[in-house]
Amino acid sequence: MKKDDRINILVLGSGGREHAMTHALSKSGITGELHCAPGNPGIMELAVTHSADIRDGAAVLDLCAAHDIALVVIGPEAPLAAGVADILRQAGIRVFGPGRDGAMLESSKAFSKKFMRRHGIPTPDFDICATLDECRLAISKRTPPYVVKADGLAAGKGVFLSDDESDAIRACEDLIVHKKLGEAGSPLVIEDFAPGLELTVFAVTDGESYITLPPSRDHKRAHDGDRGPNTGGMGAYSPVSIPRSIMGIVEDAVLRPTLNGLRSEGIDYRGVIYMGLMITRDASGEDKISVIEYNVRFGDPETQAVLPLLDGDFASMLLSCAEGRIEPNVSADAQGAALCVVLASGGYPGEFRRGLPIAGLNRGRVESPEFPGSFVYHAGTAAGIDGEFVTAGGRVLTVVGLGDTFKEARDRAYTRISAISFEDMRYRSDIGWSEE
Ligand code: GLY
Fold first, then answer.
1. Pocket of ligand 1, beta carbon within 6 A
2. Structural domain containing residue 347
3. 407 vs 224, 326, 343, 430, CA distance in Å?
4. How many CB atoms lie within 10 A of CB 45?
5. Is-above-0.90 flag for pTM?
6. Domain count, the chain
7. What is the pLDDT of residues 259-305, one digit of tens each?
8. Whose CA is closest to atom 4 on ligand 1?
9. Which residue, judged by its Cα, is nearest atom 3 of ligand 1?
10. Is the residue at 41 inside a domain?
């Protein structure tokens, strides 16, 4: 039942990111009932889960009506790109997440590159190509490594990087001619390669004002030492020790021009802007920032490392964004350090087995008293027999360690991991090492 003047909140999504968000929302003083669709077996500890097609605005609206939902928090990009936030807002429900127009910053790479060019936001130079001949020309103008990006949403499979010109042209042919990613594969963005250090910065915004959260860094490669194939992310840490001046550059050169640009184009953006950035130090020693990508949702797994560092009421912050009156009631000045490690199925990001029993999950609870300062978030798990859990995806769990220092955070995460096991479990052992 709804308590006092608390509000019922619905989270959309099913991954480790949504588990971390649900965990943060569960600690809020304004949260009444917590619901999640579709959720996952770990989220069931914290929220009532519902099976629903979360890209179907009418189905989400029915859930809101049935459970007196006052705030919907949209986790992944697909419902945002499908315009679910617009349908909910038209019905008077407060939503954290942009409408379909704002979501184009992620759902169309061509839109987002042209948006940056229009508004003078630094990003690698690019061409937009609708035919194979245009792709050949764009590639011939550049030097390796060649970067080819599919326009639409491709679940992490839309970026091709190659040192070889004919491989790059073949990637274009697969997308444009053979439609390997369907409609998402056309047009293509062919852009200059930007070397440097990657950085993720989240800014929550009501469309006018914003709060930046502690910067984080994702480890995308499957194996230690940043080797092996690209994945959805094998771990992340936060904060990243960068000079304070860098955050100033991010706000002045990227964030404020982005918000001004959105407003000038009539886009009312209420949610989070994920800035995927590259920091490049030029010959004079000056740091330059360029935007590699925008996302219109929190990152996974960066969220699992960033949210534990926030001090304040997460639900109030999201509600105030949704209502267009952001309140700086969350301190984002990171105290301490957090890192998260993804426990993956053997074979991921290629083929992997499902249905393997997982030991050591403490009945699926996020927190375990015997492992202070650590959290376990579910992603690819399913309920097995007798209240146990089995693997059901490539990225199975994210284990977070939180501490006063990176060493403490790392010890806590890896100590928690040592108590968890499933057949062929894989994880990186070097998350956050560069910060010590
Ligand atoms: N960690 C990358 C992403 O969320 O897109």
1. 218, 233, 295, 299-300, 302
2. 336-436
3. 18, 34, 20, 12
4. 16
5. yes
6. 4
7. 999 999 999 999 999 999 999 988 888 889 999 999 999 999 999 99
8. 299
9. 299
10. yes
